[in-house]
């Protein structure tokens, strides 16, 4: 009988791959959005709160990435046969004990909580409640008997928590007051982040089916999921333009810039078949779509504030 191979030590490179820095724009943009909304709507800005909320959001993103890799590995979803990108399957290619990924995910959560503690001391209990809701969703997303990532709700929850709750928490921390209106202004960000997960799941339809996942692309099929995804990406651009026209008029002249800047990654996304073979380029393209939409929308809101002040 063949002896099982001993586990290796988890290296710094493996830890960085678990944290997946290429996904951090999905957490940085919502912090920027919540901050400029506080500046525009309430004339409030604290650089230290910005720093603490930014660190907390990025660390939460790292926790999601590490815990999701752990869950996929122990459930048998990630294997050497179906993981062709060594940088996206640290447990498969580095051979360390899966418990290390679980512990690292927990460490990221604790560090995020430590960063959030400063915000809570400065801003009160409301950001704490929002942060706790986000933390619970992070755990339920990857862990448990039936994780959220195995359901057709994964795109919604990832978009709502990262794209909606993070701007809401940042706005509340900066201003000291809660406003549901922030969630309306965060809708382009919610859509863009949900689409990141949808691209990933559309490329992984066959693998997810084998693993028993019932994601939205699995239910729709690759062709219909790709059509819906591309339509929602265009909707995110149109929604940002709509919000600029009605609520941030000073930034509305930048709509042509948004349309031109988003056109290139959107056209690339439309040309991709969203199969496992193009998963890397597809993920890179949807991240560019997300970053373009949210960065220019943030600039629109900031421009509106500057014009109003001047």
Brief summary of the model shown:
By secondary structure, the protein is mainly alpha-helical. It has helices spanning 12-19, 25-42, 47-74, 90-94, 98-123, 126-142, 154-175, 181-185, 187-203, 205-210, 216-220, 222-247, 255-271, 279-309.
Largest sheet properties: none
Element order: H for helix, E for strand: HHHHHHHHHHHHHH
The appropriate CATH architecture is Orthogonal Bundle
Q: Structural class from helices and strands?
A: mainly alpha
Distance between the termini: 78 Å
- The CATH class designation is Mainly Alpha
Query: Quick check: average pLDDT?
Result: 89
Beta content comes to: under 5%
Please, could you describe this protein's structure?
- By secondary structure, the protein is mainly α.
- It has 14 helices and no strands.
- The protein has helices spanning 12-19, 25-42, 47-74, 90-94, 98-123, 126-142, 154-175, 181-185, 187-203, 205-210, 216-220, 222-247, 255-271, 279-309.
- The model has no long low-confidence stretch (mean pLDDT 89).
List keywords for this structure.
single chain, 310 residues, mainly alpha, Farnesyl Diphosphate Synthase, 14 helices, 75% helix
Topology:
Elements: H1 12-19, H2 25-42, H3 47-74, H4 90-94, H5 98-123, H6 126-142, H7 154-175, H8 181-185, H9 187-203, H10 205-210, H11 216-220, H12 222-247, H13 255-271, H14 279-309
Helix pairs in contact: 2-3, 2-7, 2-14, 3-5, 3-6, 3-7, 5-6, 5-7, 6-7, 7-9, 9-12, 9-14, 12-13, 12-14, 13-14
